[in-house]
Write a structure and sequence with these properties.
Nitrilase/N-carbamoyl-D-aminoacid amidohydrolase, 7 helices, homodimer, six-stranded mixed beta sheet
Chain lengths: ~300, ~300
């Protein structure tokens, strides 16, 4: 991997489901990030539309696209023009009745160099993702946790709910990921008090920073911000909490966005640090692979 | 498990290797914790002596004891008298030429109810543990990651270097641990600058708090404090960084000790929170057990 990489994560409010307009606005922000020198740019989860999983509605599948659909067609030329590595997120129609929450990596003029289909799918009130997304395929040698080779290095892309699973981060690192990347869309339940909201935000930052610590590689997180109403008038809608961040390979915060504002957040990743940190804290030397078999179980009972 | 448990972690300076005196001082601190209402009390790693792994010296094996040795003989009656669950840590002589870094759990009058032998053994300059300790056995149904049943609930005991491994915390939780407990002895390299020291301390707190987050259970950490000279005059000795803490099941800090002082740190664990938190963040529902097989590998290459 290059010795130093200027990286950016883009945190946005999405006002409606006009994908053409949304992708145009996002394109401008990508250009701003590139003007600031970013070579690796990460967009938030499902950035082309509002977060459509607030209710279960069969008509919403109209928002889905094939891998080569409007989102890719709009953004691939921009990545090529700017000569950047761009991580996009989209609602993928793989076939009639088969949809995924998919990230694509576009590497400048080389175009799409890999995709990642979200492996862990959440489902709770206002986040009805199990209705919309089939989990990523678990077959193949890497069981779906496959880093994507780019001109900047190997990227371990994971998406939102994946962020709570140390297993996912570990598998990406063991397969050679040099940085972990999380497009995400998470917010608060307005029914929770301020203390609970703070605990949830802290937990979310802590678990993702811990993946940097456990694996000795940087972590980039692009989260959505702003309020989006629910199609269900009785529901409170979602208030996404922003707080996108970039952490170094000891989990230290290099850049940290606000809660409520759109931001183009950048930081310099010192890739030589990973080699150093893995020398002083050689966790991979000592994993008890003879004793981890039960991790494949659902529960030990 | 009981609905609420008052817990304590005891952070100490150890002035020399007079075990009888050290255990007597520790006994007084255990009594102080019990007077404050603590029913679950955790001691730091290898508390009966100074941290003896700063050099490799065959004579140091004289410090080791059998499970029923002086450490147990001194502390078991105190646990019985105070009717507490006490987690102690000792240099175990299992046989001639076979030693472990072992925690024991003493449950009031019931005496010893279980032991845990440190599974992941570190080794770096000033922490020559691979010379002294054989890793815990990995055979048996739980492969060494076996929670210990007590009158207060099931305790997932892990020791120091284990703290960097999400696999260890996960396996304990999956085997029913209701709280994670880390006796530890970690400090700074005085050759590092303040920024590096801060990154290391933050990483250490972050990874352990993340085990609470990932598994929805509280975490107790008892760390050593104070400076201990090395037998090797050319070595700087160890400056243990204290900062023992107690975190709730979302990783939130309930109590946090200073860097340099001896402390009896207490907090109330609300055990009903785990049930609630695992309902709102049901990570165990969605683990991709079909796709985690590579976690048993050393590396994926």
């Amino acid at each position: 991997m290059n010795k130093a990489i200027k990286a950016a994560v883009i945190q946005q409010k999405i006002p409606d489901n006009d994908k053409t307009v949304n992708l145009s606005v996002t394109s401008e922000k990508i250009k701003q990030a590139a003007e600031q020198g970013a070579k690796l740019i990460v967009l938030q989860e499902l950035h082309a539309s509002q977060y459509f999983c607030q209710t279960e509605d069969a008509d919403v599948f109209d928002l889905a696209e094939p891998l080569d659909g409007e989102t890719f067609q709009t953004l691939a030329p921009i990545a090529a023009e700017l000569d950047i590595v761009l991580v996009i997120s989209m609602f993928e129609k793989r076939s009639a009745g088969l949809y995924h929450n998919t990230a694509q990596v576009i590497d400048g003029k080389a175009g799409r160099v890999g995709i990642y289909r979200k492996m862990h799918i959440p489902d709770d009130p206002g986040y009805y993702e199990k209705y919309y997304f089939t989990p990523g395929d678990g077959d193949g040698e890497l069981n779906g946790f496959a880093p994507i080779q780019t001109s900047l290095g190997k990227l371990g892309i994971l998406v939102c709910w994946d962020q709570w699973y140390p297993e996912a981060a570990r598998l990406m690192a063991m397969a050679g990921a040099e940085v972990l990347i999380y497009p995400t869309a998470i917010g608060w339940d307005p029914a929770d008090d301020k203390d609970e909201q703070q605990r949830q935000l802290d937990a979310w930052m802590t678990i993702q920073r811990s993946h940097a610590v456990a694996n000795g590689i940087p972590v980039l997180v692009a989260n959505r911000t702003g309020h989006e109403d629910s199609p269900d008038d009785r529901a409170p809608g979602q208030t996404f909490w922003g707080n996108s961040f970039i952490a170094g390979c000891q989990g230290e915060l290099l850049a940290h966005a606000s809660e409520n504002n759109e931001e183009v957040l950048t930081a310099e990743l010192d890739m030589a640090r990973s080699e150093h940190v893995r020398r002083i804290w050689p966790y991979f030397r000592d994993r008890r692979v003879d004793a981890y078999g039960n991790l494949k179980k659902r529960w030990i009972d």
